[in-house]
């Protein structure tokens, strides 16, 4: 069994997924969860060396994460965005505190968080947990924790770490650098719903 599985949720990333997977498979087992893509994301990922599981239709990022957590068999899981923003070399730094049994969930904290709505959700989350980037896509966690998460919210901002903390996880973060990626950034409408999910965790956990 591989020590680390990198779970990559992907939707219509045919132009990016191949180089990302080729970087990752040099060191890690890679599981791409294709979220009902209408392009050839699955075949590009498979050709680059990833194991690919396919959602029957586009169900969203959180559903893809849950599928990846169920399918992964490694003791450690790393989540990695399919747009190429993250650097594979940061993974080793993330997994060390878990391998040393100091933490159960490690976040890759970005220097800059682009969306104001995400920064606001981070401020709310810090009322409970002292982390700077609760919505990062680069995380390392134990599989036992991953499969225990409900992830029943609009997105992962804030609530991923709040739910993990409510389940007793030891949580920390390490700084990471991101790569510039040319991609459209629409309005994150789900952050409006996510505000109420974060409040729910703050009040009930």
Task: Give a summary of the structure in a few sentences.
With 205 residues, the protein is an alpha/beta fold. The protein has helices at 17-24, 41-48, 61-71, 91-99, 116-125, 143-146, 159-166, 190-204, and strands at residues 4-10, 29-34, 51-54, 76-79, 105-109, 139-142, 171-175. The protein is 36% helix and 17% strand.
Structural class: alpha/beta
Instruction: Characterize the biggest β-sheet.
Output: 7 strands, mixed
- CATH homologous superfamily designation: Spore Coat Polysaccharide Biosynthesis Protein SpsA, Chain A
Number of DSSP E strands: 7
Radius of gyration computed on alpha carbons: 16 Å
CATH topology: Spore Coat Polysaccharide Biosynthesis Protein SpsA, Chain A
Low-confidence segments, ≥5 residues, pLDDT <50? none
GO molecular function, one term: transferase activity
Organism: Natrinema hispanicum
InterPro entries: Glyco_trans_2-like, Glycosyltransferase_2, Nucleotide-diphossugar_trans
Domain Glycosyltransferase 2-like: 5-120
């Amino acid at each position: 069994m591989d020590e680390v599985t990198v779970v990559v949720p992907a939707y219509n990333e045919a132009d990016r997924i191949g180089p990302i997977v080729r970087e990752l498979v040099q060191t890690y087992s890679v599981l791409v969860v294709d979220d009902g893509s209408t392009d050839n994301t699955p075949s590009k990922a498979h050709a680059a060396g990833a194991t690919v599981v396919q959602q029957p239709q586009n169900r969203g990022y959180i559903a893809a994460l849950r599928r990846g957590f169920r399918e992964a068999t490694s003791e450690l899981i790393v989540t990695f965005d399919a747009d190429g923003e993250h650097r594979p070399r940061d993974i080793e730094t993330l997994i060390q505190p878990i391998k040393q049994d100091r933490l159960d969930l490690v976040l890759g904290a970005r220097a800059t968080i682009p969306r104001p709505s995400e920064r606001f959700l981070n401020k709310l989350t810090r009322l409970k947990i002292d982390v700077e980037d609760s919505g990062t896509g680069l995380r390392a966690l134990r599989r036992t924790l991953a499969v225990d998460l409900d992830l029943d919210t609009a997105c992962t901002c804030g609530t991923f770490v709040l739910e993990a903390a409510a389940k007793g996880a030891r949580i920390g973060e390490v700084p990471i650098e991101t790569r510039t990626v040319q991609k459209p950034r629409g309005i994150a409408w789900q952050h409006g719903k996510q505000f109420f999910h974060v409040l729910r965790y703050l009040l009930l956990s």
